[in-house]
Amino acid sequence: MLLARQGHRVLVVDRASFPSDAVSTHYIHQAGLLRLQEWGLLDEIIAAKTPALRKMNYSYRGIDLNGFADPVDGIDAVYCPRRTVLDEILVNAARRAGAEVLEGFTVSDLTFTDGRVTGIRGREGDGPEREFRATVVIGADGFHSTVAKRVGAELYNVRPAAGFIYYSYYSGLDWGLHHKTGFNEKWFGTWPTNDGVSMLAVICTRRQLKEFRQDVEAGFQGVFDDVSPEMGVQLRDQGRREEDFKPMRYPDNYYRRAYGPGWALVGDAGYHKDPYTGWGITDAFLHGELLAERVHQGLTGERPMDEALAEYNKLRDEESAGVYDFTTTLGELTELPPFFQATMSAMSASQEWTNKMLGLIGGVVPDYEIYAPDALERLYDEAGVPQEQRIYDPAG
């Protein structure tokens, strides 16, 4: 969409036909909503009757942060659209911008000339094999990326996956947005989505997977019972599951080299982390825009394409490092490191600081507003934290 809007000739191919569902946590942080607003698409999300969520109930092992980030550029809510809604809006926007979209097309291979990617090869449905040539091929094809495999994109900064996720859609519950981690390495999340249902999801550590699989319904209910007994009772008495459970045994957290001669990667194809913080869609938007800007520079001759793509890779890694560290730390579902324990406990005593932290989680508050030395001093002072309990260094 972004490249087509700048006048470039763009071909989009996808195995799916839209509207199409996808395994996803649906959540779009404020930082991602700002991109949709800038692109002129947020109103379409709202028009699809996606519920606006203006309060977040966040809890980690007894530390509660209940509130919402201060509005930024008019964004005073978050939205969790089903992928049947979101993806069709994005695909249609690409078409309106002038991109050609082939649905039901499976890429089987890339084409190369002297070591440089020059196009793709595949077929539409059961049709004959076709080949398309391109100046640059972008793999936005998930963690099983065909593009990444064919170019041999190497992995780095890999951290083992901590858990697995199951989710489904329920009616009969009016819970709003919850994100709760218990003391027993279990988590659940709830958020309303389209069609009058709420998405309910649970995460447990990998060592619990075998037992969980033996009775998914009981295991799912058990997570709510353990983390929030009151909500567990409400789920049992009032909730009605409307669809089958969807499992996600996600891969390890990783970065992949995201560029090379004639190719680039974006989204989970190039960078994947635990779904615990729900940053997948938002990061895909941010990095998609970053990549489009650099590809545009290369296509217009403003700078060499390889140089532009290298900068994209560098900026992607730098800008995502904080979220990556935060996600892989909290995704363990274990005791918080002392620094996070001290700061989050202090923030929970103040609505101002709670909202600021939720803004940090949402990508609209810079980390220095909380973690700079003078900000930490003010936080601890306002929370009345004794000097001997104050921690200023994340390393402990």
Short descriptors:
alpha+beta; FAD-binding domain-containing protein; FAD/NAD(P)-binding domain; eight-stranded mixed β-sheet; D-Amino Acid Oxidase, Chain A, domain 2; FAD-bd; Geranylgeranyl_reductase; FAD/NAD-bd_sf; 38% helix; 396 residues; three-stranded antiparallel β-sheet; 24% strand; 3 domains; single chain
Ordered list of secondary-structure elements with their pairings:
Layout: H1 2-5, E1 11-14, H2 30-38, H3 42-47, E2 56-60, E3 63-67, H4 83-97, E4 100-103, E5 105-113, E6 116-124, E7 129-133, E8 137-139, H5 146-151, E9 155-159, E10 163-171, E11 177-181, E12 186-192, E13 198-205, H6 209-214, H7 216-227, H8 229-238, E14 240-241, E15 246-248, E16 253-256, E17 259-260, E18 263-265, E19 271-272, H9 280-299, H10 305-330, H11 338-347, H12 351-361, H13 368-371, H14 373-383
Parallel strand pairs: 1-4, 2-11, 8-18
Antiparallel strand pairs: 2-3, 5-6, 6-7, 9-16, 10-13, 10-14, 10-15, 11-12, 12-13, 16-19, 17-18
